[in-house]
Specification:
The structure holds 3 protein chains of 3 kinds. Chain A has 15 helices and 9 strands. By secondary structure, chain A is an alpha/beta fold. Chain A starts with a helix and ends in a 7-residue tail after the last helix. Chain A folds into 3 domains: 189 residues, Periplasmic binding protein-like II (D-Maltodextrin-Binding Protein, domain 2); 129 residues, Periplasmic binding protein-like II (D-Maltodextrin-Binding Protein, domain 2, 3-Layer(aba) Sandwich); 39 residues, no CATH class. Chain A is globular and about 80 Å long. Chain B folds into 2 domains: 54 residues, no CATH class; 223 residues, MetI-like fold (Orthogonal Bundle). Chain C is mostly helical. Chain C has a single domain, classed as MetI-like fold (Orthogonal Bundle). Helix content of chain C is 81%, strand content 0%. Chains in contact: A-B, A-C, B-C. Chains B and C meet through helix 2, helix 3, helix 4, helix 6 and helix 7 of B and helix 1, helix 3, helix 4, helix 5 and helix 6 of C.
């Protein structure tokens, strides 16, 4: 028994010290970069769910088309939120070649040195991209990203459950008291932004930093949504099931996806919230864990091909930055307010910027608390008491068992 | 544990020295501790070290300095912890109440019939657990079959997105885990014991209290453990069926996405609570066994 | 009277257990994506078989389950023999540590392994995926093998092994002909349990798979947690049929064996 204890202590010390060392020296990015593109004909793409034309219902299967044109195999995986993408890149040692973060996440990754410069000699189709989208605040030099789509946040509602005439903006989401039929973004950035707009006085969601108090206030606003019985649940891609299946009455979501939902369920309609909303660009980037840079650039190039971009936009219903593609689109697409919002609405919108680390962490932490509601003192002390009793009794029992075992020299206890 | 050593020794003495030597060398095969070495190493690396890492992360901040602030942070999830215990308790009780009479009546069938029934109970258990939850999502969702049926009678309830839905899902997931251990114990209760009690003038309830119940306690204990532990700690069931209501497993997963320190602290608390519960249950079982 | 109420109760429980699954299966034939019945179709099945991702993850699952259960069986059998030769306190201490993956909440095992693998991954530069999942699966399978083999070792008469040696077997022969023969039922059931647990595991795989490696349970998660997906229904139907067939066959085999034994 003693020997085991000694062993355990040694291990503990070993683990702790190596962990501490590993913490101290963060690995530097590799300078001698090796591109495996020529030997491995694959490209690992990490994109949002429902964000590429899958070839259902007679449309183009963009991935299959790319594989056919280049002979490069696509490993395609999905993420649901920018934060998930970020965590995977930072924590999992996984290697991706193409990722599609939103603007603020592009700048976060770029500032942390997690993006590679794109070699535009390999992306000749870049000439098709609209001047407006060639660089942005998130990538001032335009070297790290190629815009994939742009869009904004709007509201969708079910006409059988809600009277559209009475809706004006996001604040109506908070007015479904007791109905439990509002679905809200399940990611800290988008949900908090809407809550911030509705705070009194409002907080600018596009700010660079937020004070603890600001985030606290936004959290309370979200808690209110839950506690006044408006909220059904927080969702991301599930929003399709919720709205298309007539399970929920109202949602704030990305406008392009709202257009998709309205195609699938004729009970749905949309409004452009009067408060204005988040205007965003999602961009194709190459992360520093990339192992097939040339293939990645081939993929990015392919996505900027007017025909491909048009076929893709026709399915996902987001705005495409590829100017030449717009000429191939039908009128229905061009005139759709959810894809091309009117100028005066666009003026009311704001864009996200990269926050400092503290605001970023605080926002995520507080968002979970908004989802779960906060514990009151009673709950905290109850847990303390329960844990205390359990631990105490366990310790007493183990001591008794050990004493008995020493007496009998038998087995200690068996779980 | 008791071997037939005296006999073995006396036999052994008759063999020549050579045989004995050969045997003691080769006995290494089944008398040696050496075969356990790879696994001992394995346990060290893949069981002990990961738990120590949880411990390490739970007590340090993100620069690796010792701190207790993680526990202060996670106290904000106390109510989720309590809620998980509550759901686990309710689900375990319902499972017990549903399973007990069933297990007893199965155990009174013929052996052949028993094995067939047990097989039928195990089929749903072998289905993927997410698909089983998913089935309940389809059934309970608004405009789903149950909702349509109820609204046909003019009843409008929200069937999904509440504690009831979570409990239904949990009971569905784990009911077989209650039935099987109960049945295993009850099938060993001899019919003649019950008959004897009846002959001695016990009524039904008395037979139950004096014969069936005491003999089934080990089954109850292992059933309760097998249901309570996973229901308290499972994740996703609440996400599928509970609407915005999360359980402690979901919170661990969410928090782990951006903060390993807080996440480890919650995992540690959960582990301590569950291990404590197991030790208590085990002790309780021992006492009962000894008491008889 | 009493019999009848028992039967009704039994039927109710069976309905509770089976109706949801049967409902899932029925809707795998629905020509439409919602809960409204729109006519009979096989299209979800063909969509399922043509889905390269699902087929790929099925392949991964089978490979992982096979490798993990074989390795766990070897590791666990050896360990069970070795551990049995430890004495009293040390042995029960080892057994308790060995049981940790069984008694610990799955999610705790999952996150603890994730911590280990991310840590080792940054240190040595590998990414989580096939190998980490395999290691994790071996980790939670081996204790089940040990639990199944140990009682057999207890029952085994060690003089059998000695007798084999005296009759001229080499130790290796004696081990495989006698000891293995005696332990076989335990080893086999340990293997089966490992195999099924590994096939079905979601939680631990979810935390140790990195972000690209998919097994079937993880695939089912990505299919069902976003929206209603009739392919998942089709998959449940197939799984159900396979499970049913396996259980019926195994039941038939074992009952025939019983009969022969009775004779």
């Amino acid at each position: 028994m003693k020997r085991i204890l000694c062993l355990l202590t040694v291990i503990l010390i070993l683990v702790l010290s190596t962990a501490a060392i590993a913490r101290a020296e963060k690995t530097e990015p590799d300078s001698d970069y090796v591109d495996l593109s020529d030997t491995e004909r694959v490209v690992n793409v990490y994109n949002w769910g429902e964000y590429i034309a899958p070839g259902d219902d007679g449309g183009m299967d963009v991935i299959a088309e790319f594989e056919k044109a280049t002979g490069i195999k696509v490993n395609y995986t999905n993420f649901e939120t920018n934060e998930e993408l970020y965590n995977v890149l930072v924590n999992s040692n996984s290697s991706y070649d193409v990722i599609v973060p939103s603007d603020y996440m592009v700048s976060r990754l770029r500032e942390e040195g997690r993006l590679l410069k794109i070699d535009f000699n390999n992306v000749p189709n870049f000439k098709n991209v609209d001047e407006r989208f060639r660089k942005g605040e998130y990538d001032p030099t335009g070297e790290y990203s190629v815009a994939y789509t742009w869009g904004f946040v709007a509201m969708v509602y079910n006409t059988t459950m809600v009277d559209g005439e009475e809706l004006s903006g996001f604040r109506d989401l908070w007015e479904r008291r007791g109905q439990h039929d509002v679905v809200m973004f399940n990611n800290s950035r988008d949900a908090m932004a809407i809550a911030m707009q509705l705070c009194d006085p409002p907080i600018d969601p596009g700010a660079k930093n937020f004070s603890e108090e600001d985030i606290e206030r936004a959290t309370d606003k979200l808690v209110e949504l839950k506690e006044n019985g408006s909220l059904n649940r927080y969702v991301m891609d599930q929003v399709f099931a919720e709205m298309e299946g007539d399970h929920s009455a109202m949602a704030a979501y990305y406008a392009g996806d709202i257009a998709t939902m309205m195609d699938n369920n004729e009970n749905l309609d949309y409004i452009l919230p009067e408060e204005g909303s988040n205007l965003f660009v999602d961009a194709l980037c190459i992360p520093d864990c990339c192992k097939h840079k040339k293939n990645a650039e081939a993929f990015i190039n392919f996505m900027c091909d007017p025909e491909i971009a048009a076929a893709n936009a026709d399915y996902i219903y987001y705005g495409t930055p590829v100017k030449a593609a717009l000429e191939l689109m039908d009128e229905e697409y061009i005139e759709n307010e959810l894809i091309n919002p009117p100028e005066e609405y666009r003026d009311k919108c704001y864009t996200f910027t990269n926050m400092d680390d503290k605001s970023y962490a605080l926002m995520q932490e507080n968002f979970i608390k908004a989802c779960t509601g906060k514990a009151n003192v009673g709950a905290k002390s109850a847990v303390l008491v329960i844990l205390g009793i359990v631990v105490l009794i366990t310790i007493v029992l183990i001591i008794l068992d050990i004493r008995r075992a020493i007496k009998n020299r038998g087995r200690i206890y068996k779980l | 544990m008791k071997s037939k050593r005296p006999f073995a020794v006396s036999v052994r003495n008759r063999f020549s020295l050579e045989t004995r030597k050969r045997r003691s060398e080769s006995n290494a095969g089944i008398r040696s501790k050496r075969p356990a070495i790879p696994y001992l190493g394995w346990m060290l690396v893949f069981t002990i070290v990961p738990l120590l890492m949880v411990l390490y992360y739970a007590f340090t901040d993100d620069t690796g300095v010792f701190t207790l602030s993680n526990f202060k942070n996670i106290s904000d999830y106390s109510h989720i912890f309590l809620y998980s215990l509550y759901v686990a308790l309710i689900s375990t009780l319902i499972c017990l109440v549903l399973a007990y009479p069933l297990a007893f009546s199965i155990s009174r069938c013929s052996e052949r019939k028993q094995s067939i029934i047990i097989m039928f109970l195990m089929v749903p258990m072998w289905m993927n657990f997410l698909l089983r939850v998913y089935a309940w999502v389809l059934i309970l969702q608004s405009n789903g079959p149950l909702d349509t049926m109820l609204s046909f009678f003019g009843i409008h309830l929200s069937l999904i997105g509440n504690t009831g839905a979570i409990v239904v899902g949990m009971v569905y997931e784990f009911l077989p885990f209650m039935i099987l251990p109960l049945h295993a114990v009850m099938s060993k209760i001899d019919d003649s014991l019950i008959e004897a009690a009846q002959d001695l003038g016990c009524n039904g309830f008395y037979v139950f209290r004096k014969v069936v119940f005491p003999l089934s306690i080990p089954g109850i204990i292992s059933g309760v453990t097998m249901v309570f532990v996973p229901t308290a700690s499972t994740f996703l069931v609440a996400q599928y069926l509970g609407g915005d209501q999360l359980m402690i497993g979901d919170v661990i997963e969410r928090v782990f996405q951006f903060n390993h320190n807080d996440g480890s602290a919650i995992a540690l608390v959960l582990m301590v609570a569950i291990l404590g519960f197991l030790v208590l249950m085990n002790r309780f079982g021992d006492k009962e066994a000894v008491g008889r | 009277m009493k019999k009848k109420s028992q039967k009704i109760y039994f039927a109710v429980i069976m309905a509770f257990l089976y109706l949801p699954i049967l409902y899932l299966i029925a809707y795998s034939f629905n020509d439409g994506k919602t809960s409204v019945w729109k006519g009979f179709t096989w299209k979800w099945y063909s969509a399922l078989f043509n889905d390269a991702q699902i087929m790929g993850s099925l392949y991964n699952t089978l490979i992982i389950a096979l490798l993990a259960s074989v390795i766990a069986t070897i590791l666990g059998t050896a360990a069970a023999i070795g551990i049995y030769n430890f004495k009293g306190g040390v042995r029960s201490a080892i057994q308790n540590v060995s049981n940790i993956p069984i008694i610990n909440p799955e999610i705790v095992t999952g996150v603890s392994l994730m911590l280990l693998f991310t840590f080792a991954g940054t240190l040595m530069g590998f990414e989580m995926g096939f190998w980490t999942v395999l290691l994790a699966h071996i980790g939670f399978c081996t204790p089940y093998v040990i639990l199944n083999v140990t009682p057999r070792i207890k029952q085994m008469d060690s003089s059998l092994y000695e007798a084999a040696l005296d009759l001229g077997c080499t130790p290796v022969q004696a081990f495989f002909k006698v000891v293995m023969h005696e332990l076989m039922p335990g080893i086999f059931s340990g293997f089966l349990i490992s195999f099924t647990y590994s096939l079905d595991d979601f939680v631990i795989t979810y935390f140790t798979r990195g972000s690209r490696f998919q097994t079937l349970p993880v695939q089912i998660y990505t299919m069902t947690h976003q929206r209603i997906n009739p392919k998942a229904n089709a998959l449940s139907a197939l799984l159900f049929v396979v499970i049913f067939a396996v259980l019926i066959i195994s039941n038939a085999v074992s009952s025939r064996k019983d009969k022969e034994a009775a004779r």
